[in-house]
Amino acid sequence: MNELTIEHYLTELGKKEGTPGGGSAAAYIGSMSAALIRMVADIQKDKKKYTEHADDIKQVLDQAQSARSFFEQLAKDDAVAFEPVLMAYKLPKETPGEKEIRQEAVEKAIRGAAQPPLTMLDKSHELIGLLEQLTRMKMSGTIINDLMVAALFIETVLETAVLNVTINTKLLSDEAERVVIEDKAFERVASGKKKVQELRETINYFLEKNEWPDSL
To answer: Cross-referenced InterPro entries, in alphabetical order (predicted)?
Structure first.
């Protein structure tokens, strides 16, 4: 998938002939979350009240920028990840040999299609870590609302990624392999959602009271 403007991407997303789908869209939501995290850090980096956190803020800036680029690439990877599966299913299956070759090709393609959402789950945890850093620094102002939006976006990415893992793994004939992949995905989404929920409660406390909880 070539570089697209947002307008063109959404047009492709809404077409039956288009290659991007929900997984690709979720990856772009992940990139938006990373951009919001970077924006908050960028706004605060030169303020005197955060001088003691200057190095940490710089690290957040760099990692958020890297995460944004990573998610953008994941969006492209996910958009084309299922194409090999479709091609494998079109292979001939008239003879026992052809059936075996076809099945091997299908299994290999399915593993490949499950990889972008699995990677998305892992990368989402990196975004959670960046959000945790900013809350521990007790950022302030109306931009904390943007941290809440970033957290909501991360939760969406987690939910979508696990859906896209299981929609692929249910096609695997090897049940043991399917269970291993799905267990990893379920663990990552459960631990990620738990951390996001804790962050949302902390950020919401600030939004309601204009101060961070004493426990932070």
So the answer is: Cyclodeamin/CycHdrlase (IPR007044), Formintransfe-cycloase-like_sf (IPR036178)
